[in-house]
Write a structure and sequence with these properties.
11 strands, 6 helices, 3 domains, 4-stranded antiparallel β-sheet, Signal recognition particle alu RNA binding heterodimer, srp9/1
């Protein structure tokens, strides 16, 4: 068994550091408001007066509390992408808080990073997994190689991708409808719906990747 995970000290610093940093920043904003209202040429004097109108010690304690809460929310969002990769003779197990995906080891042919995602591909080029990950390639590559899985510095099928264009004759009507729905989800920031529609496209025989809210596709054997 080989395990690659986010360093414990990184997660600890994230959970402790972000609330402290956010609280300090918000307290700084509170203090800056005192300066802004005294400068006739300064911008945002209206909001500055509003902040300045909050009596002490409530202004200070409120800034610290709100900052700490905001920092905790940011830490939670960052920790949700703390991927742990466990490789064994039988499976590749990808876990992060609240999520678990197991891929049979024999089905995985190549792994690579696509931006902030770890991607596993099958022997026919089908996408088996695409998970948020900040784990560096320097740690992932030897772990996969130790279990006989090739590591690529880029998507080995990169030249095969084509941009999706609404109504394209190269894409059947049923797939075009899914692409259109997914484009709407991407535009609206609905990541969950976009992920579900990606799975639906996989069943229709398409691998999809996103670039600046644009969809690019290539054909594979349907899942």
């Amino acid at each position: 068994m080989t395990t690659v995970a986010t360093r414990a000290w990184i997660r600890a610093v994230t959970w402790a550091g972000l609330p402290i940093l956010a609280a300090a920043l918000l307290l700084g904003v509170d203090r800056l408001a005192d300066v802004l209202i005294r400068l006739p040429w300064a911008p945002l004097r209206g909001p500055g007066r509003l902040v300045h109108s909050i009596p002490e010690p409530w202004a200070t304690w409120g800034a610290l509390a709100l900052g700490a809460i905001a920092g905790l929310l940011l830490a939670g969002m960052a920790d949700a992408e703390s991927l742990t990769v466990r490789l064994s003779r039988t499976e590749v197990l990808l876990t992060r808080p609240g999520h678990r995906r197991s891929v049979p080891r024999a089905e995985v042919a190549v792994a690579f990073r696509d931006g902030d995602r770890l991607v596993l591909l099958g022997r026919t080029g089908r996408e088996l997994a695409r998970e948020p990950s900040h784990l560096p390639a320097s740690r992932l590559a030897p772990a996969f190689a130790a279990h006989g899985i090739a590591w690529s510095d880029e998507d080995p099928y990169d030249p095969a991708y084509r941009r999706w264009i609404p109504g394209s004759p190269d894409v059947p009507a049923d797939a075009n409808a899914v692409f259109a729905a997914r484009q709407q989800a991407l535009g609206g920031g609905d990541d969950r719906d976009a992920a579900e529609l990606r799975d639906e496209l996989a069943r229709l025989g398409y691998v999809v990747r996103d670039r600046h809210k644009k969809q690019y596709w290539r054909r594979v054997d349907p899942a």
